[in-house]
Amino acid sequence: MNISIAGTGYVGLVTGVCLAEVGYKVTCFDIDENKVQLMKDGFSPIYEPGLSELMKKNSKQNRLFFTHEPQEAYKDADIIFIAVGTPEQKDGSANLQYVESVAKAIAENVVKDTIVVTKSTVPVGTNDKLKDIIEKHKKHDVKIRVASNPEFLREGTAIYDTFNGDRIVIGAEDPYVIETLEKLYAPLNIPIISTNIRSAEMIKYAANAFLATKISFINEIANICEKVGADVGDVANGIGSDQRIGHQFLRAGIGYGGSCFPKDTKALAQLANHINYDFHLLKSVIEVNNDQRVLLYEKAKKLYGSLKGKKVAVLGLAFKPNTDDIREAASLLLIDALKQEEAQIAVYDPIATRHIQHIYGDTLNYMEVPEDALAQADIAFIVTEWEEIKEIPFSTYKQLMKEPVILDGRNCHDIEEAKKEEVTYLSIGREPVYYKAIESYNVENDS
Ligand SMILES: NC(=O)c1ccc[n+]([C@@H]2O[C@H](COP(=O)([O-])OP(=O)(O)OC[C@H]3O[C@@H](n4cnc5c(N)ncnc54)[C@H](O)[C@@H]3O)[C@@H](O)[C@H]2O)c1
Ligand SMILES: O=c1ccn([C@@H]2O[C@H](COP(=O)(O)OP(=O)(O)O[C@H]3O[C@H](CO)[C@@H](O)[C@H](O)[C@H]3O)[C@@H](O)[C@H]2O)c(=O)[nH]1
């Protein structure tokens, strides 16, 4: 069975590599020529633990190929996965130009019966549209069948998730398609849920919206905890122990980011809007997240009034650990606000720095180690909970900073430890720890 993948972002490349790993011949196609050359040379264009090794192994064993020629990719394919981006448009809805252009390219190049499977996250009804586009533009008399097969992998654990997913969703109406895809995925040994195409498309948005709802819910509980002397960590543990609720996605913090939750929640709200359904709950989830993302900055403002000229360290730039992705990362909003205030900003991330550098150029100081960012800093912001950032002890902050004022957006440290170590430590949804009154501390305002 020949498999082709259109788009070599996280989803496309990981899917391609994992299917090659279980024995299929896979051709990955991308319109970005440089990216394709990089992959042909054996390098992964994205940071994802374990990916480069599997890429090299399967290329060497002649199961994994890369091309930027659509004809080479599509002509002999039995199954073509569409895995290109569906970014957010100005009004929040999903931009379908990339999936639609893949559909056209498929139509122009296929010469045999093919199943076209959409892995990209697309609004309900898109697969029907793609089928129409293919039918309209196809050059040969071949049968094109379509299926929706949404992807649930997380960045940073994408390979693990692909081999250990909770379920594979196959949305298709044609029994031949269902049977073929069930066979394709059989080596992964993951439960398959078969639905019609529209339900499969909806499952993806509903899953992301539900997880985002859990996060915004716990973040609101956190904000209340701060005001009433409760600890959100204990509360999350207390409610999460109820199996009906579960522990996952109850980590309070500075909101959700990344390439999926922000755009997919907005796209679902827009989808509802288009059918005149007011999705109140989801709109609130988005609003809560927008407020949450500026919380650390607001805490700093309450402490100091103005941040002009303050030396600040931003620890962690990626939207979460184990990825270099900065799409919709909380660090971006924080840096923008700090720049506006004319603070002096030193940033550190184990791997995402170059992407931030691309945006901010020489307006920030880029540090190779976190200690250099902390040296003589007035305030440290913990934005991404990388292991190595979590492991920095309070003693290091004390030793290096002018005065240890730590604003932790990911609740990386223990409150009692902060008290014992005599640092100022403000986190999310937990008791604030103030040490030594900096003259402008405005503790009353914080209550
Ligand atoms: N990133 C994730 O963790 C994740 C997880 C599940 C689902 N998704 C969804 O999967 C889709 C892809 O996301 P991503 O983050 O992997 O994408 P990405 O934005 O990282 O990469 C998309 C790739 O597609 C390529 N491309 C654009 N137009 C093309 C065309 N016509 N033909 C071939 N290649 C083309 C681009 O050059 C790019 O390399 C999105 O719909 C996203 O919502 C993403
Ligand atoms: O308890 C939590 C869990 C996550 N987050 C934040 O939520 C965002 C997303 O995290 P995560 O879900 O781990 O990362 P993604 O790689 O964006 O994966 C999500 O988005 C993908 C793209 O659709 C889906 O495939 C995955 O199933 C879904 O988890 C990040 O900013 C996290 O910091 C929290 O704030 N608290």
Would you kindly provide a written description of the structure presented here, covering whatever features stand out?
With 447 residues, the chain is an alpha/beta fold. It folds into two domains: 2-195, NAD(P)-binding Rossmann-like Domain (Rossmann fold, 3-Layer(aba) Sandwich), CATH 3.40.50.720; 196-446, 3-Layer(aba) Sandwich (Rossmann fold). The protein is built from 20 helices and 14 strands. The protein has a six-stranded parallel β-sheet with strand order 3-2-1-4-5-6, sandwiched between helices. A six-stranded parallel β-sheet has the order 11-10-9-12-13-14, with helices on both faces. It has a two-stranded parallel sheet with strand order 7-8. The longest helix has 32 residues, at 197-228. It is elongated and about 80 Å long. It starts with a strand and ends with a helix. Uridine-5'-diphosphate-glucose (UPG) is lined by residues 121, 151-155, 208, 211, 215, 249-251, 253, 256-258, 260-261, 264, 319-320. The site of uridine-5'-diphosphate-glucose has 21 residues, from helix 9 and helix 11. Belongs to the UDP-glucose/GDP-mannose dehydrogenase family. Pathway: Nucleotide-sugar biosynthesis; UDP-alpha-D-glucuronate biosynthesis; UDP-alpha-D-glucuronate from UDP-alpha-D-glucose: step 1/1. It comes from Priestia filamentosa. InterPro entries: 6-PGluconate_DH-like_C_sf, NAD(P)-bd_dom_sf, UDP-Glc/GDP-Man, UDP-Glc/GDP-Man_DH_C, UDP-Glc/GDP-Man_DH_C_sf, UDP-Glc/GDP-Man_DH_dimer, UDP-Glc/GDP-Man_DH_N, UDPglc_DH_bac. It is an enzyme of class 1 (oxidoreductase).
